[in-house]
Amino acid sequence: MTRVALVTGASRGIGAATARLLGERGFRVVVNHRDSAEEAEKVAAEIAERGGEAVVIRADVTVADDVAAMTEQIGRRWGGVDALVHNALTPFAITSYAELTWDQLGGKLDRELRAAFLVTKAVTPGMVARGYGRLVYLSTGLSKRPREGMITLGTAKAALDQFVRFVAQELAPHGVTANLVAPATVDETTGIRRLSPERVLRLGEATPMGRLVRPAEVARTIAFFAGDEAGFTTGTYAPVNGGAAMD
């Protein structure tokens, strides 16, 4: 059976690398984007060139109507979603606690959980009905270990982590798994441009492997949880950080 994977925020970085890899592994891939159609179409074209199937769907995953329309379109085309990779990153402020406002923190919390809630609610009824599903969410090591300036992202991802554990517990009897993949700072991504070159260098040097993680490396971990091999693994938190934090 050909599985269908929905990758949110799939036009670049980790999302694009994951979409391409899942396409290579035989998934039909939905390349979701919010405002980067050209890049998303390029990812879909690359999947097709390698013999896979992909479709581009524009949707803001923080907007309920967008998510509902996307899910309906997938259902009409391919019957439903077997694997959700929720990668889309909502905006966040880089700030100290001293300068933090509630709008910055509360806004990030709302967007982070709203997006995860909406996409999860949209795809899980079909998964439960079929007795099969894979849910994979992108977290970050910042949800467990603070770093200067990253209070909004770290706090929001910590909330996401716990949401996913509750989902994993409730859906496990229905053959649906839910897992978290938590990369360290990722090279070759849009987010890295918000950091100074000096800080990027220090982050890489602080890792035992001496560099930042690459999108393709994160994608391989995601693909494991999205596949059949991880059928008895749920509620887990998988760091991809080159040994920067060892639990």
Automatic annotation (TrEMBL):
<dbReference type="InterPro" id="IPR036291">
    <property type="entry name" value="NAD(P)-bd_dom_sf"/>
</dbReference>
<dbReference type="Pfam" id="PF13561">
    <property type="entry name" value="adh_short_C2"/>
</dbReference>
<keyword id="KW-0560">Oxidoreductase</keyword>
<dbReference type="InterPro" id="IPR002347">
    <property type="entry name" value="SDR_fam"/>
</dbReference>
<dbReference type="GO" id="GO:0016491">
    <property type="term" value="F:oxidoreductase activity"/>
</dbReference>
<protein>
    <submittedName>
        <fullName>SDR family oxidoreductase</fullName>
    </submittedName>
</protein>
<comment type="similarity">
    <text>Belongs to the short-chain dehydrogenases/reductases (SDR) family.</text>
</comment>
